[in-house]
Design goal:
Elements: H1 2-28, H2 38-56, H3 62-85, H4 87-94, E1 98-102, E2 105-106, H5 108-113, H6 118-127, E3 136-141, E4 147-151, E5 175-178, E6 181-182, H7 184-189, H8 194-202, E7 214-216
Antiparallel strand pairs: 1-2, 1-3, 3-4, 5-6, 5-7
Length: about 220
């Protein structure tokens, strides 16, 4: 009976922690893994650890853990707002981009300051499909550890603009049918209705939207 009660408590606290973490993650905003700074990474680990404690630490009530979780989220949000408003604060907290290669020359002093060695540089250059250092005009190590590379002008990709070729604007695809279900909201957005959609499908030999996995315009 005691085990059953403990299991129920863990289940309820787990649900609370899960949705708390979901809400707080949405509040903190969207960032890809590659965009996370060291501070963001540590913040994420700490918040996740607190959420786990809310679920499984039955030796204390959940309320103090939840307050701690809320405090860390509020502090993280405050830091985000501060770094958005203040360039100096962003530089101190998140760091700033550092030039590693300039005009094809490796800046060894900058690499030493960052404790960034040649092995790291060559590895990250290979992920950019660069296997020869002579191809690099500029390389900048971003605050999140990502390496941004600008190739020498003569090695950069040729674009239609370089050849004075006009390219039509293709726009963005809008889903009209997803997994056999008509997305009426998107139809309304392009000022079309189901009658028009049915005619378009019939022109492709399709009788019913349920036959379509994905349709876009």
């Amino acid at each position: 009976m005691i085990l059953l009660n403990e299991g129920l408590v863990v289940f309820v606290r787990g649900i609370i922690a899960f949705f708390s973490l979901l809400i707080f993650a949405r509040v903190l905003g969207k960032k890809q893994i590659s965009q996370l700074t060291l501070f963001d990474y540590i913040l994420g680990i700490t918040i996740g650890s607190m959420a786990a404690s809310i679920t499984t630490d039955l030796s204390s009530c959940a309320w103090p853990h939840w307050v701690g979780l809320l405090t860390w989220v509020a502090a993280g949000l405050g830091i985000d707002l501060l770094t958005t408003k203040s360039r100096y604060a962003a530089k101190c907290i998140e760091g700033e981009p550092t030039i590693i290669i300039m005009n094809g020359k490796i800046l060894e002093n900058n690499m030493r300051k960052l404790r960034y060695n040649a092995t790291n540089l060559l590895q990250q250059l290979r992920t950019k499909d660069i296997f020869d250092l002579s191809e690099v005009h500029y390389a900048i190590l971003e605050a999140n550890g990502e390496l941004t590379v600008l190739k020498k002008p003569e090695l950069q990709t040729l674009t239609p603009k370089d050849m004075n070729i006009s390219v039509p604007n293709t726009g963005i695809g809008i889903e009209l049918i997803y997994d056999g279900i008509v997305v009426d909201l998107n139809l309304k957005q392009i000022n079309r209705d189901r009658k028009w959609l049915k005619a378009q499908l019939q022109s492709h030999g399709i009788k019913d939207p349920s036959e379509v996995f994905l349709a876009k315009i």
